[in-house]
Amino acid sequence: MAGLNLLPWREKAREENKKQFFVLVGGSLLLAAAAVFGAHQYMQYAIEHQEQRNQYLSTQIAELDKQIKEIEQLDATRQALLDRMQVIEDLQSTRPAIVHLFDEMVNALPKGMYLLHLKQDGTKVELEGKAESYARVSSYMNRLDASPWLSSSNLNVISTKKEGAEDEALVLRDFKLDVTQLLRQTQENVDAEPSKPNKKPEGGK
């Protein structure tokens, strides 16, 4: 049997294998490059999308901060208005107390006694004056305590002093006392206050 020369066939098969190998390698490289490119594009898109979301959130947060500041300013304005209304209400409610204070000071003052000085610090009223006797000072304090607009009278100083000529000297007592002003009448004081008779109209029977 004559021998067959298989070298050309083997060379040809080897060349075919090389071509297939390079084709596979090239295809793999192309696929890998495409995959890398696709992943890069996807990541870039994801980053841009996240940046857009972050920008949107930042804008919304800034808008909310602005609204919160406006609400805080409105709350501050509202509180300022409420404070002013409270001050006005307090002034209106305590305004009659000043009138009643002087009325009670005068009406409670007994004969043989007069005031020289009056000082008010909040609801505390300090009085200085002269009286002909200790009894008149005591009577004055009792009348102040009985007033629906005053309470808690307290005698601080009382001293004796002669005034006038020696033969006609008048013995007077200098006194200092303080009393608490009631800005509003309590129901107990209102009930205790004697009711004033209604005046009949002129010409009435």
From TrEMBL:
Pfam families: PilN. Residues 47-91 form a coiled coil. Keywords: Coiled coil, Membrane, Transmembrane, Transmembrane helix. One of its GO terms (biological process) is type IV pilus assembly. Residues 193-205 have a biased composition (Basic and acidic residues). Residues 186-205 are annotated as: Disordered. The chain crosses the membrane at residues 21-43. This is Pilus assembly protein PilN. It comes from Thiothrix lacustris.
